[in-house]
Amino acid sequence: MNxxxxxxxxxxxxxxxxxxxxxxxxxxxxxxxxxxxxxGVHLVGIxxxxxxxxxxxxxxxxxxxxxxxxxxxxxxxxxxxTHVGDDWQSLVRHPAVDVIVECTxxxxxxxxxxxxxxxxxxxxVNVTVEADAFCGPLxxxxxxxxxxxxxxxxxxxxxxxxxxxxxxxxxxxxxVAAGRGHKWLPHFCESTPETVWGYYGLTPEQAERGGLNxxxxxxxLDGSKPSxxxxxVSNATGLGVPSNGLLYPPASxxxxxxxxxxISEGGVxxxxxxxxxxxxxxxxxxxxxxxxxxxxxxxxxxETDYIKNCFEEYNAHTDPSGxxxxxxxxxxxxxxxxxxxxxxxxxxxxxxxxxxxxxADVVATAKxxxxxxxxxxxEGGYTVWGKLLPAATSKRMGGVPLGLAxxxxxxxPVAKGQSLTWDDVAMDTSTHAYKIRREMxxxxxxx
Length: 447
What we know:
Blueprint: H1 3-12, E1 17-22, H2 26-34, E2 41-47, H3 51-60, H4 73-79, E3 83-85, H5 88-93, E4 99-102, H6 107-119, E5 123-126, H7 129-146, E6 150-152, H8 157-171, E7 175-182, H9 196-200, H10 204-209, H11 214-221, H12 224-237, H13 256-259, E8 274-279, E9 296-301, H14 305-313, E10 324-329, H15 339-348, E11 360-366, E12 375-377, E13 384-390, H16 391-397, E14 406-410, E15 425-426, H17 432-443
Parallel strand pairs: 1-2, 1-4, 2-3, 4-5, 5-6, 7-8
Antiparallel strand pairs: 7-9, 9-10, 11-13, 12-14, 14-15
């Protein structure tokens, strides 16, 4: 709770945390908007495939032109300015950089960036949670071996959920369930970039005006992103996952403690101690008032009558038994909150969420009947969506992780609704991402 004081101290000592950002898209731009307002940090450099777009985004969020006059990374360090270029390797390898913020959204490239950062003894805040979902446990092990910190990004829902889980356990509460909200109906898993705006609640004109990426937004809508983020939470907290995918029970905020109970007690959980996602829509499509669509929550249990009575005495909203209570944040602010992670890893050597074991996985699942020769286009596309499964189930079936289902050819028929296996595709086995995933499968102890 004293990160800001520590940042002020670093500023007073003229010893800022030096940061390298890879990827300056929407998420990265939100973080960039906060950096000039945060003491004790210095963004040394930005690496982006399009430096001109990065500069445009910097201007959009209010950066002054004189902050971007650095002709090199060395110049940026010397003058307290920021260098913008396309050479991520030079940025990661620069000796002055303390923390790398991986913000590309491309899981295959993110693995390359993260592994090189570890090799250079840099801390990593990984915004590209898609990469964490298919190899986070092994990335965490690699970071530990390198003597650096690897962390999920605060502001994104997984880190916020991990924070709530840590709060609960630190207080002595057993965690019954934890998760996020989402706008969900079952047929959304078939959505494509052509149908996303109608389901999402925007017109094509609004989406075009805002420069919104239909594939990215569709990855949220079709259930891929909720599964990815639930996987990251499960692996970081040890909470279990449903045996056949997320259930998306509909509930208002006040009804979360009602539905996030075991089935035997009137809820939807197979057992206590699980991740789940709450829908903001009733099963008939009606919007639920006071929903948790953009927020996060944790449900805890009073194990004694005394604690249960305390809930009652302090007007804590519980289920009818009085034993289950839900704490929540109704909103998350995405990239505007990433500074918490940067400060935590640099000043405390503590992650804001990191995989502790391999408990969960996201398996690519067919949106339509697939035939040999079809090309998979990853999360949010036309061919597959991500289904959350226990890691043991995924490993047993040889499931293809969604994060690797990009530009991959199908080699045998796969029926709509069927999860893909390694035997169904012709995978590029030369990438670091593929190799680290297979190493994780071979060496990890399943949670």
